[in-house]
Amino acid sequence: MKEIFTDIPSSILDRMKALESRDAREREDGTSKLNRLRQIPPETGLVLAALAATAPAGQMLEIGTSAGYSAMWLSFASREREDVLITFELLPDKVDLARETISKAGIEEFVELVHGDARGHLSSYDEIAFCFLDAEKEMYEEFYDLIVPRLIPGGLLVADNTISHEKELADLLKKARKDKKLDALVLNVGKGLLLCTKRK
Ligand SMILES: C[S@@+](CC[C@H](N)C(=O)[O-])C[C@H]1O[C@@H](n2cnc3c(N)ncnc32)[C@H](O)[C@@H]1O
What we know:
Elements: H1 2-6, H2 10-28, H3 42-54, E1 59-63, H4 69-81, E2 85-89, H5 92-105, E3 111-115, E4 128-133, H6 140-147, E5 151-159, H7 170-178, E6 182-187, E7 193-198
Parallel strand pairs: 1-2, 1-4, 2-3, 4-5
Antiparallel strand pairs: 5-7, 6-7
Helix pairs in contact: 3-4
The structure holds S-adenosylmethionine.
S-adenosylmethionine binds near residues 66, 91, 94 and 118.
């Protein structure tokens, strides 16, 4: 896993910096929520890459690609696992940006982008080892119900914004903490990561 922390190729680093600048600018200049990139911060990317790299063998998913910033971080885990991240994005403009990211970063081998509503695709995945959930908060419970039964033992569901949106996600947090199929905890990283591990 050493490479995740020390050896980021310049093609990826350059694209990360460009997207970080754009994301920061959009947070200040009044760009609408729909159009903003709404990316994770780098510290969250690092934790996600480390978690995904050490998840058991199985499918690796991301819900909510935006321009592909978090997918670049997760591509380090794909490379480590000799696997491919499947990432879903609903909006055509974001899909175009993510395609540009995948090409400019040179991560075609490690990331497959699917254009569409992830809710319509998840029934095709029955051996999920890692899933990063970063879509609209009002859909989180629906996604939870779709993903948790499809996690393999030891598999991880990681959901972002569980501290920044604690009130909106209170029901989900309660549900995850009471779920006997899982161990659940919130990591104080970035905007707060809910980490659910399927019991063996
Ligand atoms: C917070 S942004 C994702 C940011 C990205 N994970 C990153 O850190 O670079 C949420 C994205 O989820 C997408 N999205 C929302 N609902 C979706 C759904 N049902 N299926 C697929 N994508 C969805 C939105 O269009 C938006 O681009």
